[in-house]
């Protein structure tokens, strides 16, 4: 059973991980994206995420259902709002029968979420504010 959400509050990574567990799965792979201080030579102070929530949930659900149909369990949660350095911005987890599938599908999901899901990042750097990070 998949779980997808847009969250305004800090992510409870342990609780999200627990949603992936089931006796039929032998491997769980998670990706947790956090707010980092440096992107190349640009220093970040904080990030602000916004989303077209209805569409984001719809797109994340489509992704989760597609992977679930392959016999896996999926959790995708993305934060919105203002995030400080080191805060968790996104959690993607996949539980599968074997580690190979779990790794492959987790990487596919985070890459696809970043490309397809209508979530926008506003970066507050030491020198200016940028949409989507350094250009």
TrEMBL record:
Signal peptide start and end residues: none
InterPro entries registered for this protein in UniProt: MoaE_sf (IPR036563), Mopterin_biosynth_MoaE (IPR003448)
GO biological process: Mo-molybdopterin cofactor biosynthetic process
Name of the protein in question: Molybdopterin biosynthesis protein, E chain
Species: Loigolactobacillus coryniformis subsp. coryniformis KCTC 3167 = DSM 20001
């Amino acid at each position: 059973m998949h779980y997808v959400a847009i969250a305004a509050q800090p992510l409870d990574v342990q609780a999200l991980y627990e949603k992936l567990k089931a006796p039929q799965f032998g491997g769980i792979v998670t990706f947790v994206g956090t707010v980092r201080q440096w992107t190349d030579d640009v220093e970040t102070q904080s990030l602000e995420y916004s989303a077209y929530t209805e569409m984001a949930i719809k797109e994340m659900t489509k992704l989760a259902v597609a992977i679930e149909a392959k016999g896996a369990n999926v959790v995708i949660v993305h934060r919105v709002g203002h995030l400080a350095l080191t805060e968790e911005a996104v959690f993607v987890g996949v539980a599968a029968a074997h580690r190979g599938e779990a790794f492959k599908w987790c990487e596919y999901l985070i890459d696809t979420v970043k490309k397809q899901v209508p979530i926008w990042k506003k970066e507050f750097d030491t020198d200016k504010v940028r949409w989507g990070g350094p250009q």
